[in-house]
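Task 17 of the worksheet. Students: predict the tertiary structure of the chain below and write it out as structure tokens. Keep your answer in the requested format; marks are given for formatting as well as content.
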Amino acid sequence: MKNYLHYKEYVGSVEFSEEDTVFFGKVAGIKDLISFEGDSVDAITTDFHHAVDEYLAFCIEKGKKPEKPFKGSFNVRISTDLHRKAALTASARGISLNMLVENAIKETVSM
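Model answer:
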């Protein structure tokens, strides 16, 4: 089971452990670890909100800029042959390699 919670700009994954009879998750799209859990939908939602609020308060206290999830930039490692083909395809279409990749993702991901 995989679902998501949303709070402020953050998205949290939700999974269920049958063995422990608990819902658990972590914030997606950032390097910092923010985890949460609960034994019901209401409990995990409350703990998720609390975990995000604690993270933001901690960042303020430490003078650290909180990570923003899904900034719109990421690195992709592909074979040199595929990289060459993609760059040549983008050039032939008169678009940037970034635009080619963005278009390919849009075609693949349901929005």
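Marker's comment: The chain has two domains: 3-62, 75-111. The mean pLDDT is 93.
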